[in-house]
Amino acid sequence: MTSNVARVIVLGCATALAAATPLSAVAQQDDPGTRTIAADVDGDGTLDRVTVRQLDDSTQTLTFEVAGRTVEVTTEGEGFAPLEQPRRVDVNSDGRDEVVLARAVGANTVTFDLWSYDPVRAKIFPVSTPDGARLDVFEGGGVNATSGYTCVDHPDTGARDFVTVNAYRTEAGTFDGERTTYSVDGDLARQTDRVEFTAVDEDDPVLATEPSSCGTV
Questions:
Q1: Cβ count within 10 A of residue 7
Q2: So which residues are the signal peptide here (predicted)?
């Protein structure tokens, strides 16, 4: 089947943001409302303790134990059970891990935020777009939609692109949607490329995602 693809280029932007990777270390969980992983959030070569804790039906805390200090942020989070495991990623191959954190869990789709630690300010920040909005990342979709994310490395430059895919199945059984590429610098994500597509089959490469490609390097 023929697909129709329109490319939108955003000039003046760089590369890379993130996705998920198999966790290298997981601490023993004390209760179903807490999840802990290990990640090198400040890039010093030492794994730090990262914990998410559900406070109530609508809020959760994200805590980093890093460089001898404890840094915490409170953010939105549905009271879903079991609590989603946070994911360790390195979205721009700079050696400093980010954390992918579930914000909402629907019947078929999970909505994630990406969080970054600034060792200079000793604070945790959500990765956001230039207009100040958080970068929403979706995974799942069910029978009639598909969403996901992947990373693309560029060995010649050492850069890494973060790519999201969001598409919906049409009455014809094909998919319409978009594939968007971002560049990240600290807690700022800039769109560098967007491909709009129509009438693609479910095995079309434009729909392909692989979260593990965003793992740490």
A1: 10
A2: 1-27
Domain membership of residue 36 (yes or no) is no
Residue 107 lies in a domain: yes
Please choose, from the candidates 192, 170, 179, 189, the residue with its C-alpha nearest in 3D space to the C-alpha of residue 18: 189
Q: Are 57 and 122 in contact (CB under 8 A)?
A: no
Q: Domain span at residue 182?
A: 4-22+86-214
Read out DSSP for 166-199?
Answer: EEEE-TTS-EEEEEEEEEEETTEEEEEEEEEEEE
Q: pLDDT digit string (tens) for 52-94?
A: 999 999 999 999 999 999 999 999 998 777 889 999 999 899 8
Structure confidence by residue, pLDDT tens digits, 182-197? 999 999 999 999 999 9
In a domain, residue 55? The reply is no
60 to 100, 145, 210: CA distances (angstroms): 14, 28, 27
Number of domains in the chain: 1
In a domain, 43, yes or no: no
Distance, in Å, from the CA atom of 151 to the CA atom of 148, rounded to the nearest integer, reads 11
